[in-house]
Amino acid sequence: MINRDISTRLIGIANQVPVVTIIGPRQSGKTTLVKNSFPEYNYVNLEDPINRIFAKEDYRGFFETYREPLIIDEVQRVPELLSAIQVMVDEGRGKNGRFILTGSHQPSLQKGIAQSLAGRTSILTLLPLSMNELAEEELLEELSTDKLLLQGFMPELYREGSRDPGVYYRDYLNTYVEKDLREMLEIKNLDKFLRFLTLLAGRVGQVVNLSAMSGEVGVSSTTLSEWLSVLEASYIVYRLKPYFSNITKQQIKSPKIYFTEIGLASYLLGIETENQANRDPLRGNLFENLVVLEALKSRLNKNQNPNLYYMRTAKGVEVDLILKKENYLYPFEIKSSMTPNKSYSRHLLSFVAAEEGAKNPRIIYAGQSYPQFNGVEYINFKNLEKHLND
Questions:
Q1: What pLDDT band is residue 106 in, cutting at 50, 70 and 90?
Q2: Are residues 237 and 267 both part of a single domain?
């Protein structure tokens, strides 16, 4: 079992609030995390139809059977329980760590929390494994860049005897569409939705023009916007927002799209081998996706707001990733190359010169780390974690 970076904060927060809620994509390890963090707690999974019916039809009997302290897995399956938990928490003020909830559907779960558990719960987000977590288990060093792009970071793929990544992501996609999307969207033509998802994979690290994609998919841009919102809310994609810079007012103001799980993006692009990943024309985009999501995981695992941005002007000045922390701006350029190049630092240095509070420009790439090269620091991408926190 791989230890998760978020576990210490999860246990600490449970000592401070009566309810802790863990949200995140399916199969990111939420159940394993909470069971290992709270081994003495009772446990119930609402994916089980019998448990679900019991909770819906007799919530008093449900809580008599499953007594606190209690882990309730996939609580969004019975959102009515949140009101009952509110009453129980209010009747026993001062007792913390009473309920640990997990959920995969952010929209329905957060709506229920806003209505019933506001001020009573703390919410943490668990994404798939991070490179830092793999490194702690001495698994990262043996994994090549292309292996990581192909395999991704789902915990299941790091268990002994796990499925081939292509088989895993095929099953994952089928399960996601069957279990989740049909509950959140009325999709009349599933083929068109899958076409949209595949087109998004071909646009990782790019600003997506939904009007242009509308003709390719065969549905309105309004429908595509709705689909994209649901994909983001259910942790399939992540939208990196633009940072509004002092360099110029003529900036790209739309977010860039990344996949929460790089292995799923590679699967959708038809990448089946490491050699194919190495030769794919989108390899640089996929590598950028990997790095951006690692930065996001690092922030969320510390229970911090992401505060991640990018910048691109109409004149072509671009910074791939900007971390805003303690009133400072830390810019990063992301390159899949293994060789330093003086052209990589041009936009970073322009950004630092123009932006008050911008400092420590860095290139994240696949080569050897160098403290200084042409005015910037070069960092091997596997060492990203420590440079996000120094």
A1: low
A2: yes
pLDDT tens figures, 19-48: 999 999 999 999 999 999 999 999 999 999
Residue 109 domain-assigned (yes or no): yes
CA angle centred on 196, ends 169 and 240, rounded to 5°? 80
User: Are 206 and 256 a contacting pair, CB within 8 Å?
Assistant: yes
Query: Residue 199's domain spans which residues?
Result: 133-287
Domain contains 224:
yes
Q: Which strands, in side-by-side order, build the sheet including 206-207?
A: 206-207, 256-259, 237-242, 308-312, 318-325, 328-334, 362-365, 376-380, 370-373
List the CATH number of the domain containing 159. 1.10.10.10
Rounded to two decimals, what is the model's pTM?
0.93
Of the three residues 80, 96, 125, the one that is the final residue of a domain is: 125
pLDDT for position 115: 73
Q: Tell the burial category of 142 from Cβ atoms under 10 Å away from its Cβ (0-12, 13-18, 19+).
A: exposed
Number of structural domains (the chain) is: 3
* Spatial CA neighbour of 156 closest among 138, 135, 172, 178: 172
Of the candidate ranges 99-103, 141-145, 352-356, 364-368, the one whose mean pLDDT is the lowest: 352-356
Read off the CATH number of the domain in which 380 is found. 3.40.1350
Q: How far apart are CA 66 and CA 60, in angstroms?
A: 10
335-338: Cβ within 8 A, 24+ apart? 335/284, 335/287, 335/363, 335/364, 335/365, 335/366, 336/145, 336/283, 336/284, 336/287, 336/288, 336/365, 336/366, 337/365, 337/366, 337/367, 338/365, 338/366, 338/367, 338/368
- Residue type present at position 12: G
Is residue 292 domain-resident? no
List strands edge to edge, sheet with 70-73: 42-45, 70-73, 99-103, 19-23, 121-125
Is 317 found in the same domain as 243? no
